[in-house]
Write a structure and sequence with these properties.
The complex is a heterodimer. Chain A contains 13 helices and four strands. Chain A is mainly α. By secondary structure, chain B is α/β, with parallel strands linked by helices. In chain B, a hairpin with a 2-residue loop joins β19 and β20. The two termini of chain B are 27 Å apart. The chains are: A mainly alpha, B alpha/beta. At the A-B interface, α8 and α9 of A face α10, α11 and β20 of B.
Chain lengths: 316, 508
Amino acid sequence: MERKPVIDILRRFGMAFILMAMIVALSFMNPRFFSISNFLTIMRQVAINGALAAGMTMVILTGGIDLSVGGNVALAGCLAAGALRSTGNPWLAIAVALGVGLMIGMVNGFFVSYAKLPPFIVTLATLALARGFTLVYTEGRPILVDSPVFDAIGGGFVARIPAPVLIMAVVYMVVGFVLSRTKFGRLVYAVGGNEQACRLSGVNVERNKTLVYVWCGLLAGLSSVILSARLLSAQPTAGTGYELDAIAAVILGGTSLSGGEGGVGGTLVGAFIIGVLANGLNLLNVSPFYQDVAKGAVILAAVLMDKAFHSTADSR
Amino acid sequence: MGGDSEVGGALLEMQAICKSFPGVKALDGVDLRLWPGEVHALVGENGAGKSTLIKILAGVYRMDSGRIEIDGRQVDISSPRQAAQLGISVVHQEFTLVPQMTVAENIMLSNMPSVRGLGSLVDKTAMASESGRILDGLGVDIAASAPVCSLSVAEQQIVEVAKALSRKTRILVMDEPTAALSNVEVERLFDVIQTLVSKGIAVVYISHKLEEVFQISHRITILRDGRVVASSPTSSLTSNEVIKQMVGRELTSMYDKRTAEIGSPAMEVRGLLVDPAGQPISFRVHEGEILGIAGLMGAGQIRLARALFGIERIYGGEILLRGVSSAVSSPDKAVRRGIGMVTENRKEEGLVQLLSVSRNITLTVLDSLSHLGVMSPRAEDDIVTSKIEELDIKTPSPNQRVRNLSGGNQQKVVLAKWLAVDPDVMIMCEPTRGIDVGAKAEIYRLIGDMAQSGKAVLLISSEIPEVVGMSDRVLVMHSGRVVGELAGDECTQEAVMRLATGGSAVGA
């Protein structure tokens, strides 16, 4: 049962080391990278994917997947912007965004848990539905968001920290607390580890699986608020590909796609790896076309390395 | 029939085969001799060593010591592939057919004929004619072009046999081949077996159904506790003798049966139908009582247990808990009504292997350990520490993943999880499966403790000594029906075995 401590540390914090190595390397390659203002920029950029990935972590911990978050961001954002335009009430708009996200999560959860359909298929369908409804509602045109509340969310600071970063920090604290300290969080891991064993221990597996999709949807709604506030408009094509970035962050963070293992701390590191990479490549004037290539390569390399750490640690 | 072939040399000779697993000596010097053209039945209780012996023959396990000869020449069977090359085929209880593929494709799966000169292109004509020839040779009428999923279970069984014959098979092992077959289908399978032996193939026939064994076999070898206790021509044996030999195991002090005070009925089952076409089942179990439900594997006892816990559907009848009719339609309802269940397969259904000992123990009691959904770490620690101590679970720490524990300690974690909820009725399916002797004794002690603390225990097991040794009363099941109830002096291993193998309670 004895393990080499070095490997144990690599295993637990491997991705954090990779993130630090990236930061050090980029600092040498471009002096503008290593500055407070650039770090704040990165954090602001990471905030949206970070919030989505937190919800995605919960879903993946149960062994599921949610491909609908990108469509969810677009629909929630546009309906919220519509509500703002017709009522002028930003708080109502925010409530609409969160409500839409929550509803989509409930639909996902219902079909996955009670209709017992594969999550991949259910959320692929709700992704298409959400995108379709967004285009129908907006007729393909963006909706301007004009409200001091949204200005503050997108561009404001609290104690020199950008508001989106603060929101992300709160999201991670809440989700971290929920996963580690609540009954629901315990069941997220347990259901992901062995659904049948949970069911036969008297756990209401269906309710818990539904709830993770609700959380994920709710956080997508919240992300749409941050996105609209940053762009000062709701774009009908917003959030395209966001689901993949969120999933990538979760995987980089060491959460097992088969469920039961991982956590939201790793996901935050994963989201930062993606964010730092994009920012660094921008500063190095790498064409955006190459950035996706780099992202794909980093994901593969990181996951391979992680697997190597794991198999070394497991072979006792 | 096959008896006179003994004049020639033996086809297979297994000598002094030994095999140990951690904590268990599964085979202890077993000899088995097979003649061409004979049906050789292998019988014994669960755990007697039949499947270990077969797995060694099939190249799945390696023996620790011993010698295997085929045609008088020593052979080394180190892989299933090698076993197949030596002409050994096994038809398992679970089929290995690909349902979407045709009968012909399945039969020829391991050696598809290819078009000459085009190695990777399958020659469909040759495949159809070759598989047709094999099926004809078995005297059965199954279309080679039909997809396997359109066949009945019995037909699939025969396709399995045909698949074995597509390779050059000289020894065919059939493991409980009639478990899922109707009487007519059994006759049909027996016709196929007769055809095989007339061609000089030796058949090793493993079955719990003694009637069939006597009908089809030429010779019976009886295993008990990893040793051969008898091996004789079928004609010289009677079914009572076979039963006596099978169960001759000592009832050791391991069972530590204490008498608990038997109280009022905790659970009563009235006319329960777990199978729409089955027989209704009724029984009653009291506080402090251990009610054994014995039966050989697949006799319906596990299905009954799962129905009582709300996993399987109930087609009729009712369940009364403390005299009140209660709908137990799902496991979470069952748990809330005071029923707990240890499932027969720990790994798949009992534990979350990835999680720690502590997280597994608290899985059933999260409600009482949390306030407004937030866990109370102290309450959690308390219950985990006390259960680890109470059940003497050997783990380096409560945070150790359960998958790193031994089978016996894993099973104790399962028990701890249920003791934490403190149910009134505890259903235990095969509670000592796959654990070593020392841990078994501890589990028995814990079962005894449960009864003494006033719980009603349903002990469901295919290990007859265990049921007889632990229970106050025993119900015996056979083919989905309760065929008898035994208590006191009449509850002997022999009487249980007789009922479980389809005989009557009184020895003839």
